[in-house]
Amino acid sequence: MIIKKMHEMGIRSEHAYLAGVVSIGFSVAAWLGSLKLEPGVGLDRADRWGIFVGEWAPTFFGLGLALSHYEQQDGTLTAANVHELRERQKAQAV
Questions:
Q1: Which tens digits make up the pLDDT trace of 51-64?
Q2: Alpha-helical regions (H) of the chain
Q3: Which positions, given as ranges, span the membrane (predicted)?
Q4: Angle at which helices 56-74 and 13-37 cross, to 10°
Q5: What predicted TM-score, i.e. pTM, was given to this entire model?
Q6: Which residues contact 83 (CB under 8 A, 6 or more apart)?
Q7: Which distant-in-sequence residues (6+ apart) come within 8 Å of 60 by Cβ?
Q8: How far apart are CA 53 and CA 70, in angstroms?
Q9: What CA–CA distance (Å, rounded) separates 24 from 64?
Q10: Where are the domains of the chain?
Q11: Cα–Cα distance list, 20 to 1, 9, 49, 51, 89 (Å)
Q12: Which of 7, 18, 46, 93 has the smallest set of CB atoms within 10 Å of its CB?
């Protein structure tokens, strides 16, 4: 099972969610970059780059959901763990 292997490699749901968010930003950057750096080829090519990279986000979010489900079944993600992670993030922000 791919999700189990990813979990064993240390990839967690939050990593996949972060990759999804980053890919959305990268999609916009690819679109703008293509539009600005390749002015002779037009808007169509920029659109294709943006859409190509934008298609990654749903995959990453889907992997995040699958990993989250696996973590809940595996017992590595519990309400106590989530609360502890939030408390650590609050402490680091201060």
A1: 888 899 999 999 99
A2: 2-8, 13-37, 43-54, 56-74, 79-93
A3: 16-37, 49-67
A4: 170
A5: 0.70
A6: none
A7: 16, 17, 19, 20, 23
A8: 27
A9: 15
A10: 2-93
A11: 21, 19, 16, 14, 20
A12: 93
For residue 88, what are its two tokens? 């650590």
Rounded to the nearest 5 degrees, what angle is found at the Cα of 3, between the Cα atoms of 74 and 70?
Answer: 25
Residue 12 is classified by DSSP as: -
Task: Give the tokens for residue 25.
Answer: 């930003």
4, 70 in Cβ contact below 8 A? Answer: yes
User: For residue 73, what are its two tokens?
Assistant: 């079944």
Alpha-carbon distance 65 to 16, whole Å? 9
∠ CA 79-3-11, nearest 5°, is: 65
Alpha-carbon distances of 73 from 32, 66, 78, rounded to whole Å: 41, 11, 9
